[in-house]
Design brief:
- By secondary structure, this protein is α+β, with helices and mostly antiparallel strands.
- The chain is built from 13 helices and 14 strands.
- It has three domains: 81 residues, GIY-YIG endonuclease; 102 residues, no CATH class; 174 residues, UvrC, RNAse H endonuclease domain (Nucleotidyltransferase, domain 5).
- Helices cover 43% and strands 18% of the residues.
- A hairpin with a 7-residue loop joins β4 and β5.
- α11 runs parallel beside α12.
- The two termini are 49 Å apart.
Length: 432
């Protein structure tokens, strides 16, 4: 799109990458953004820009972007495109230094380190990454899912991070072992490194399958603490990646994120059609969640997804009033009644409640009184089942793993996050 005609409304509110192009349509600069609209609007306003960026913008005539389903995917796609295009304004001119790479050595116990290109001799590297801070933050998150050792000098005992679960097993400890124990622990460590390689190569499914299999093994052995440990790692992986697409998939189809959202919406609409025959499209979806501590400082959150993507302009927070006891049902009724009184707000085609049949039964009267035409469902967390009010009953629908379920989980998790963040603010205010 021509920069001269670009407005904020043209830019999606989504994570992704953007390319600035010159008159010959050569790529001048590749960047990553958690929110494309916010980042590109800052460029348009030319606020607090350094000299290099001002020079780049003076030569740029067009800007294009690719939406992604997660920030992690945006970062891996950015690195892939920088490597492919080598844009001149992505070069760090200071001290003749090149970009940062994440390097994995070929040692018996491979080490992970951050290097400049000229320092890389053997092993495998991923990148380039435009900032040491960004890749360091990524590795910090990855290490909570897949532990590895970061100490450069091997000593005779396990490093400090072993006690935090961030280095397990530690190579220093492995070297003190012998026989079968040594081989087994070495295999686990090297497998961890293989998982990290897969993650940075954009192949998320092998990591997910590995963690799932370990969780099931622990559960079958009645080792529930270890099973919960791997379950938590799976949740961290889900939060980190959100959706499993490699950088090459976005290069082959720049509309992949939108296509995935539309596919998910169509699948969800088709699933709900027998229960809501008038539900012919899903443009606006709202989800509600309640957060409190034993009934105190109770809050409700409303998150809004438009065409499958969150739109934070329409998010709302509700401070629960007049309900002192721990009563989630009463809180939900109050929040929904207050929301439906706002006739100036656009009505959704679908409302999602965090919970199952009890929650839906509790709010059914609110919908009958306020707006019976809105479709509403529950998402029961135990088995990730969709619960639908139908002819006085609440049948459960077990959605297959796929786009529709991923979308519902994404919306529900965003409602959790939003409700919890507001509740945290209220707790801090109460303490102060």
């Amino acid at each position: 799109m021509l920069i001269s005609t670009l407005t904020a409304k043209d830019i999606p509110i989504a994570s992704g990458i953007y390319n600035f192009l010159d008159e010959a349509k050569s790529v001048l600069y590749v960047g990553k953004a958690v929110n494309l609209r916010v980042r590109l609007t800052n460029y348009l306003r030319k606020v607090n820009l350094d000299g290099k960026t001002v020079l780049m913008l003076s030569r740029a005539k067009e800007v294009s972007w690719v939406e992604t389903n997660s920030e992690f995917e945006a970062l891996t796609l950015e690195a892939h495109l920088i490597k492919a295009y080598k844009p001149r304004f992505n070069i760090i001119w200071k001290d003749d230094k090149s970009y940062i790479y994440m390097h994995i050595s070929k040692d018996e116990f491979p080490q992970i380190s951050l290097m400049r290109k000229q320092d890389i001799k053997d092993g495998i590297s991923f990148g380039p990454f435009p900032s040491k801070r960004i890749i360091a933050e990524m590795l910090r998150d990855v290490r909570r899912i897949i532990p590895y050792c970061a100490q450069s000098r091997r000593v005779k005992r396990a490093c400090f991070y072993t006690h935090l679960g961030l280095c397990a097993p530690c190579p220093s400890h492995i070297k003190s072992l012998t026989g079968q124990k040594y081989l087994e622990q070495k295999r686990i460590y090297r497998n961890n490194i293989s998982q990290i390689k897969a993650l940075f190569a954009g192949r998320f499914s092998p990591v997910e399958k590995y963690l799932t299999s370990r969780m099931k093994e622990a559960s079958l052995a009645a080792n529930y603490e270890e099973a919960a440990h791997f379950r938590d790692k799976l949740n961290l992986l889900k939060n980190l990646t959100t959706r499993h697409f490699a950088a090459t998939a976005y290069i082959e189809n720049p509309m992949l994120a939108k296509d995935t959202s539309q596919k998910a919406l169509r699948a969800l609409q088709k699933t709900l059609l027998p229960y809501y025959p008038a539900l012919d499209f899903l443009q606006r979806i709202e989800c509600y969640d309640i957060s409190h501590i034993s009934g105190k400082l109770a809050t409700g959150s409303m998150v809004v997804f438009i065409n499958g993507a969150c739109d934070k302009r329409f998010y709302r927070r509700f401070r629960i009033k007049g309900i002192s006891k721990n009563d989630d049902f009463a809180c939900l009724r109050q929040v929904l009644a207050r929301r439906l009184r706002h006739t100036e707000w656009e009505l959704p085609q679908l409302i999602i409640i965090d919970g199952g049949a009890p929650q839906l039964r509790a709010v059914a009267q609110v919908f009958l009184e306020r707006n019976p035409s809105i479709a509403y469902i529950g998402l029961a967390k135990q088995f990730e089942e969709v619960v639908v009010p139908y002819q006085g009953a609440f049948p459960k629908i077990r959605l297959p793993k796929g786009d529709a379920l991923h979308l519902l989980q994404k919306i529900r998790d965003e409602a959790h996050r939003f409700a919890h963040s507001y509740h945290t603010v209220l707790r801090l205010k109460a303490l102060i």
